[in-house]
Design a protein that fits this description.
Elements lengths: L8 H27 L10 E4 L2 E8 L2 E10 L8 E12 L2 E8 L10 E11 L4 E4 L2 E5 L2
Antiparallel strand pairs: 1-2, 1-8, 2-3, 3-4, 4-5, 5-6, 6-7, 7-8
Amino acid sequence: MKNLTWQNPEQLFVAQELINKVKSKCCGIKVYLKDNTIPEHAFSKSYANALTSFTLEKKGEQVFMVKTTMYPPQGESIPMSSVESYAGKIEGNALVFTYFSGMPTQDINEMSKVEPYVVYYWKESGMFIMEGENYAADM
C-alpha cells in the first residue's frame, strides 16, 4: 500500500473523509444484502410501474424475468411492446441477471451473456426497484 503525502492538512482531512464514506457505504451494502432476503411468494406475482411490467420465476438456483415495456402509439399507429428475457441468480435482496434475450425464452443457451443487470427487493414495502423506479405487485 502506498502512503500518500499531502500539501496541507485540509487535503488530508478531505481525503480521509472520502475514504471513510466509501468504507461505510460498502460495508453497509454488504450487511444489507445478507440480512434482507427475497421471500418465496415474491416469485409468484407480476410487478408493474407505468408502461413497464415484469414477472419472475424461480427454478432451483436460477431466476428468470420476463420484462414487457409498452410504447404509446405515435399518431395513428397502434401501441407497440417489447419483451425481454433475463436469467440470473439471487444474491441477498438482489436479483443479478447475467443473461439476456430480446425474445421470450427460459433457455440460457438461447441467451447472450451480459454485464450484470441488478434488480433490488425492498422488503418493507414488498416492491422491487429496477432502474431507479419502484415496481409494486399487481393485486
